[in-house]
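ENTRY TYPE: protein
CONTENTS: sequence, structure tokens:
***
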Amino acid sequence: MTEYASIAQLLALEGSVPEVVLAAYSGEDDARERMREALGVMRESVREGMRPDLRSVSGMTGGQAAKIRPEAALGGKTLARASAIALAVAESNAAMGKIVAAPTAGACGILPGALFAVSEERGYAEEQLVDALFVAAGVGRVIAQRASISGAQGGCQAECGSASAMAAAALVQLAQGEKTAMDSAIAFALMNLMGLVCDPVKGLVEVPCVYRNVIGVAGALTAADMALAGIVSPIPADEAIDAMGRVGAMMPAALRETGIGGCAACKLREG
């Protein structure tokens, strides 16, 4: 069984990153099929989340992803489409729809937003997307072991930050970038969301959670673009992961999914 406890170790192992991560699932012959199934669930959650009439149980979110028009977006069609998909999946989760936790339910829109939007633009094959999911899984595994993927433990940086890093690495894989670029993409994504608190309004995974999926996917796209352009992060990915873990440990309880501080303490618009 292939073992790795750091991004450096993961990238140093012989073979492509998807092959290395898949080898960690030795004895699980159906691992690729299970990942294809996960991809299918992601697609269905996008379709469900794009419904204009979708509403969460609380009524605070739903139907917003359908309002995004890529053709009119200031940031370009791919970013707008990624934003719409990320928001759709997050809203589907808030409406009790079936999603893939990537790595958590609160951050479930970031990875599909990045993969599907770029795939629509570039025409990647199904198996390329499956390989990208294995890369994301490998990165998520390292983050979970070295730091945290739990908002209650490390703030939203541990959820949306981790998802953004996973998506950034997956995008580098799709673009056939170098392993060194993957390391930088992970670091950029984590640095950009470092210190993000977990402050769910009314204790629900809706506000500001669904909107942070949008900024998370935007961060993943820009992190991947910088890395693929040859910009090297001064901070290695593992150092960024460890820093995130330390920052999370410093956060007061009011900013770690308790529904007390941050946006959770704000008054909502009436009506």
Remarks:
- The mean pLDDT is 97.
- Residues 113 and 194 are 21 Å apart (CA to CA).
- The chain has eleven helices and no strands.
- The radius of gyration is 17 Å.
